[in-house]
Amino acid sequence: MKHSRLFPALFALALLLGACGGDDDASATTDASTRDRLETETTSAATTTTAAAAYTGGDGDGAFAPGEPGTDAEDTATVAAADLGRMIIFTATIEVEVEDIAVANAEVQVAIAGLGGILFGQETTTGDDPRSVLTIKVPPENFDRALDRLGGIGELISQTVFADDVTEKVVDLESRIGTNEVSVLRLRALLETAPGIEEVVALEAELLRRETDLEVLRGQLRTLEDQVALATIVLILSEPAPEIPEPAIEVVQTVATGHDGGGNCPGSDEVEIDEGEPMTVCFAVTNTGDTSLTEIEVRDSGLGLDPDDVIVVEGDPTAPLLPGERMILAFETEADFGRYVSPSVSAVAVDEDGEPVYFEVTEEIEAVALTVIEDTSLPGFTDALATAWDGMQWLFGVAVIVAGAAVPFLWVPLLLAWLWWWRKRRAPKAPPAA
Questions:
Q1: Which residues, at least 6 apart from 351, have a Cβ–Cβ distance to it below 8 Å?
Q2: Which of 259, 253, 276, 272 is nearest to 336 (CA)?
Q3: Helices 42-53 and 77-84 meet at what angle, rounded to 10?
Q4: Which of 126, 154, 276, 345 could cysteine-pair with 96, CB 3.0–4.6 Å?
């Protein structure tokens, strides 16, 4: 008897599960049809996305310029969507450059307060690169005005606006939710009339699965409805990057004949001079960068120029050389046929407080065209005396070097002499002759 009552209950459960399976097939069919419709409406959705921005001057990459009040741009897609009964999710990302992050954050609160806007999240970082990312939600009808206000807080760097038509997704979810609700009601009714424990366990397991699926679908629908109800704007605030100083220096080298304490500077860039004649090498140093320069040093290895040998003709070497200022330096020497010109300059760039911003600024200088005419005349008494003196100095220098090298070994001959004397003293004396 027990088995005879169990068979009808199992048969009814099988029919119910078959009906539920039919509901799943119907849902799957609905999903497929929905996907087909969404694919065919991709072009129209893209058009809606462009219209939803309600901005003029788009360049095709998602960035738009705000439409002027009183123009056709005020007839936004948000109003059109409401009139047509469409459900559209509006999102935007804006990057704005401001002078002060803290002040701009306060201005954002004021800008969205009158539009029903809500600040959902904020992430602010300070330091060398201050930045603030705010997530804002506003009613769709105020979406465009919120974009205008937020973009006007500072300099608009970039703006991207999107619109996603989810009408078909909402309709599909509502249909699937209705189907699952009917299935749950049927299972609950059958559970109340279940004749045995086995039937109750099977029905409860199936009911739990159906109720779980139903709650998932309801959650998806609530998420879409919340996104439709409030448009999302991600606002990125940043401060201008500090200007990087670009130090630069320009040096013009010239040569003037004679010695005048640099008074004959600047000279000429093409000079022809006899060997041995006095000449002055001039350096016009100009700060062509945007930072002050200190510790300016000119060198010329070919002419034997050392920074300590220069004469300051113009400028103050103890004060920073400001942008646009010039300093003139001079070096007095004699024309030498065997020398060549190889100038260079170095300086240290400093900020307003005098702190170095670069270790060193160097610049190669275009060498002046210096031609020294060799003296081929016979040497006179003075030249012979100078040559003899140079020779004596050379010989004396060689002697000093040799003596210096021999000093550490002076003990060697002294030791040899002492050994010779000691051996001679120890040698046996010959007997006297008979």
A1: 245, 291, 292, 357
A2: 276
A3: 130
A4: 154
Burial class (CB in 10 A: 0-12, 13-18, 19+), 292: buried
| CA–CA separation, 170 and 221 (whole Å) | 6
> Left (φ > 0), alpha (ψ -120 to 50) or beta: where does 378 sit?
beta
For 306-317, the DSSP string reads -GGG-EEEES-T
Length of the chain, in residues: 434
pLDDT along the chain (434 residues), means of 10: 41 44 42 39 35 34 36 44 73 93 90 88 86 93 92 92 90 91 90 86 90 93 89 92 81 88 87 86 90 88 83 90 92 83 86 77 72 66 69 82 78 80 72 57
Residue 187 tokens, joined:
């299972």
Structure tokens at 377: 């005349």
Query: pTM of this prediction?
Result: 0.47
